[in-house]
Amino acid sequence: MVQAEIDINRRGINSVEVPSRVEISAGDTLVLDIVNHGPPVHLTLSSDNSASFTEFFHENLYLRERQEFRIPLYENAFEGSFDLAVITGYGMHRGTIGVFVSRFVKKQEPVLEVPPVGIPSPEPERSFPVLIVPLLLAAGIMYGAWMVERVDLLNYAAVAALSGAVLVAWLSRR
After folding, report:
1. What is the DSSP track for 128-167?
2. Residue 30 and residue 3: Cα distance in Å, rounded?
3. Whole-structure pTM value
4. Spatial separation of the C-alpha atoms in residues 32 and 67, rounded to whole Å
5. Are 61 and 42 in contact (CB under 8 A)?
6. Sign of CA pseudo-dihedral 152, 153, 157, 163
7. 2, 29 contact by CB (below 8 A)
8. Which of 26, 66, 78, 169 has its CA 20 to 30 A from that of 53?
9. CA-CA distance, 170 to 76, in Å (whole number)?
């Protein structure tokens, strides 16, 4: 969260005082702390070139004393800048903030692998269950024989061998 203070009516009626530049990271939120030092005023916040950084482009506010306005930036925004205009007096007074966006970079903490004391090391990878191959081979042979001979017992045996292969494969992964 980056905060920028905007002063209204401090130097005179409808005067606008803004920072000339604000730096912010993509994915962060620009918080405008708008302070009115005089009578209530209508205020316009506008940006013509911010579409690639945020959904914000225009807002009309009625400012009594103080108001906070948030402008969230896209996390995937590229580096660049946009201008944010603060307008009072129905367009007579204007202040422009240059918002400079830097690319968001997640900081990755190094992972140190220290084996815990008293905890056994993980099991080694299991090898391929060899029993699956003969079961699948037997199922294929029995199914082929059933196609030729049409003996139902061969079909049942082929299904049983295939089911056995599936069961062996499933149990070997546990």
Report:
1. P-TTHHHHHHHHHHHHHHHHHH--HHHHHHHHHHHHHHHH
2. 6
3. 0.58
4. 8
5. yes
6. positive
7. yes
8. 66
9. 42
